[in-house]
Amino acid sequence: MNITVIGTGYVGLVTGACFAEMGNSVVCIDVDPDKVERLQQGHIPIYEPGLDAIVTNNSKAGRLRFSTDLAAAMQQSALYFIAVGTPPDEDGSADLSHVLQVAGQIGQHLSRDAIVVNKSTAPVGTADKVAHVIRQQLQTRGVTDVHFDVVSNPEFLKEGAAIDDFMRPDRIVIGVESNHARQVMAELYQTFSRNHDKVMFMGVRDAELTKYAANAMLATKISFMNEMANLAERMGVDIEQVRKGIGSDSRIGYSFIYPGCGYGGSCFPKDVQALVRMGAEYDYNTSVLNAVEQRNQSQKQRLFEKLQQRFPDLAGKVIAVWGLAFKPGTDDMREASSITLINALAEAGARIQAYDPVAMDEAKKHFPASWFDDGTIRLCAHQYDALENADAMVLVTEWKPFRQPDFNAIGKLLKQPIIIDGRNQYDPHSLKQQGFDYTGIGRDIA
Ligand code: UDX
């Protein structure tokens, strides 16, 4: 099939590359000419395992192209994917301006029957708004003989596993109203759904809410577990035992019940807030989601609070931070717990020695340049360099090289043998035996 993907951000690029990989001919459109040029030269703006090779191979094969010319791309295809950002507005609701702008451009250039697929995470009712904007443009142009469908096809990919998630999805949610759109989408996705039927057709608004509900449910599981962990700390209970004990119940399951220092990333925080706003618009108080959000905000403070318990005055203290990305496998630091921790430490006058396997460049964008100049933060070349003369070490992101470190070396490098483990990676008993003052999340056991 000939496909146009509008937006070369995370979702757009992965979508375009994976459709091309399956033999389709894809043009990815972006308004930023520099970005398009860099993509044409094979420079991928995001860190995502496997994406590089797929983009390069399919570009070489001529199946994947990058352009700023939407009108030209639309001449070549009748299937347009909208994959532009829906950043939070000041009040937390999703900002639809990019999506509707693209809808307007589609309306300006539409000259054949087509299917417009929204892949951006956008509130219930967005497809209707997209259709309305396109219709308005067609009317302005006096075009009456062109038919189009607007489909909702939300994306569930995880950063760091995006290619796999796209190629081997749990499910493919497609909100459609017409039989024609349903047939085209079924044909497009059949190759991703060979052995088991992964495609789920539903109404457009059903699909729109499905995306938010999925993320909100996962965020709820995490916040719930964080609440249990905080309770466990007070009760002298080991949350790890509780996690295993409840995860074995197939109705609960083991996934997304790892307590920690809070969830981050580009989706959970934004989508939970957007759903809360949607609730308000429909005059409904989303009390569960409000609590999920609140718990997460507080949970991000836990690492700092644990340091404060050990150092009532943090001024002049040196704190080693292992991990800056919001989770392993990505350089993305959006809403990362490391930011909350580092900001609080800097505010308290501490100095930070940080290391992350891939997010070091990204880190420079998230803190004031002066902090790097005056030594508030030092980005270290190696994970063990970050520990030198530090008063404590904090694990924020559970990258693999942090999971089984050399505790002998850690003990020697740290000024004080304090380990705060924000992701429950280490065994409290063994670390205590080795002489560490260790605390995890929900594991303050004697
Ligand atoms: C998420 C959804 O998983 C994905 O389906 C959706 O399309 C986008 O949002 P992503 O943000 O890439 O994906 O990361 P994910 O792996 O879901 O982790 C999100 C956050 O939750 C991370 O900060 C992670 O550390 C945290 N987390 C996850 C926990 O604290 N505990 C857990 O048990 C699982």
Automatic annotation (TrEMBL):
Short name of any one Pfam family annotated for the protein: UDPG_MGDP_dh_N
Record-level Gene Ontology MF annotations: NAD binding; UDP-glucose 6-dehydrogenase activity
Entry's EC annotation: 1.1.1.22
Pathway assignment: Nucleotide-sugar biosynthesis; UDP-alpha-D-glucuronate biosynthesis; UDP-alpha-D-glucuronate from UDP-alpha-D-glucose: step 1/1
GO annotation terms (biological process): polysaccharide biosynthetic process; UDP-glucuronate biosynthetic process
SMART domains reported for this sequence: UDPG_MGDP_dh_C
Residues involved in substrate binding: F156, L157, K158, E159, K211, F256, I257, Y258, P259, G260, G264, K327
Keywords on record: NAD, Oxidoreductase
InterPro entries: 6-PGluconate_DH-like_C_sf, NAD(P)-bd_dom_sf, UDP-Glc/GDP-Man, UDP-Glc/GDP-Man_DH_C, UDP-Glc/GDP-Man_DH_C_sf, UDP-Glc/GDP-Man_DH_dimer, UDP-Glc/GDP-Man_DH_N, UDPglc_DH_bac
SUPFAM superfamilies according to UniProt: 6-phosphogluconate dehydrogenase C-terminal domain-like, NAD(P)-binding Rossmann-fold domains, UDP-glucose/GDP-mannose dehydrogenase C-terminal domain
Active site: C267 (nucleophile)
Claim: Lipoprotein is one of the keywords in the record: no
Family statement drawn from the similarity comment of this UniProt entry: Belongs to the UDP-glucose/GDP-mannose dehydrogenase family.
Protein name in UniProt: UDP-glucose 6-dehydrogenase
Species annotation: Bacterioplanes sanyensis
Source species taxonomy: Bacteria, Pseudomonadati, Pseudomonadota, Gammaproteobacteria, Oceanospirillales
